[in-house]
Design goal:
The protein is α/β, with parallel strands linked by helices. It has one domain: Class I glutamine amidotransferase (GATase) domain (Rossmann fold, 3-Layer(aba) Sandwich). 26% of the residues lie in helices and 29% in strands. It has a six-stranded mixed sheet. It has a four-stranded mixed sheet with strand order 6-5-7-10, with no helix packed on it. The longest helix is centred in the C-terminal third of the chain and has 17 residues. It starts with a strand and ends with a helix.
């Protein structure tokens, strides 16, 4: 059975080249049906069945528009999370699913409120760092580049435990969110290209167990990158 992957708003949600996550996945499973949903279209997941939903990082102004766009579908998103549909949410797209985003002047942008975290913006200070974290039996490698940090309790539903770098904020050792097959993380890279074993896990979650594209090369690059990041 062909799998359906929905890519949300690729014309806007592609900071740091993170849309390459899906370009790589297309190389891994070329037989799958990849649907790029533009911002002016109704998402396929609203009325149809999908196997994976992806959304990448965006500008701060676009965050507000995406929240308004997805708000009518909050109940459907929660339903899909409960049904174990796979979500991969990268970069500041994680903040769409929290309680709110707070600006420097204290004003708030109400978000979807699906998870009990909130974000604070500091547009005068960008955080950049390398990242290593443990997800199940895999060491995740990647990078962070963000004007926002998230706060709140993700102790019961974090994505990865930090080994190097920071979690959802500099005081936290817990990175991202996970509930069932919903995964959201600030880690960029793109994460699937940098982490071949994690890519395999994502494919397994949608019912595919096979070799990934350029497996030998991406695994070799991962091994070298992990070794170098541990030295820094």
């Amino acid at each position: 059975m062909n799998k359906t992957i929905e890519i949300l708003f690729p014309e806007f949600c592609n900071l740091y080249g993170d849309l390459s996550n899906m370009k790589y996945l297309q190389k891994c499973i070329p037989e799958a049906n990849f649907i790029e949903t533009s911002f002016n279209e109704e998402p396929i997941f609203v009325k149809g069945d999908v196997d994976l939903i992806y959304m990448g990082p965006m500008t701060e102004k676009m965050q507000e528009k995406v929240i308004r766009k997805l708000k009518p579908y909050k109940q459907r998103i929660e339903e899909l999370i409960e049904k174990n549909v796979v979500f991969l949410i990268t970069g500041n797209a994680i903040e769409i699913f929290g309680e709110y985003i707070e600006n420097e002047n204290g004003s708030r942008i109400e978000a979807l409120g699906i998870f009990n975290i909130y974000a604070k913006r500091n547009m005068m200070k960008r955080h950049n760092s390398n990242f290593i974290g443990k997800y199940e039996d895999i060491e995740i490698v990647g990078f962070k580049s963000q004007f926002t940090q998230s706060y709140g309790n993700n102790e019961g539903n974090y994505f990865a435990k930090v080994e190097k770098g920071i979690g959802i904020n500099p005081e936290s050792l817990l990175e991202g969110l996970q509930k069932n097959n919903f995964i959201a993380t600030y880690v960029i890279g793109p994460i699937l290209i940098l982490n071949p074993q994690f890519t395999k896990k994502i494919l397994e979650k949608i019912g595919i167990k096979q070799q990934i594209a350029f497996e030998k090369d991406v695994q070799s690059a991962y091994d070298q990158r992990l070794k170098e990041l541990k030295k820094i």
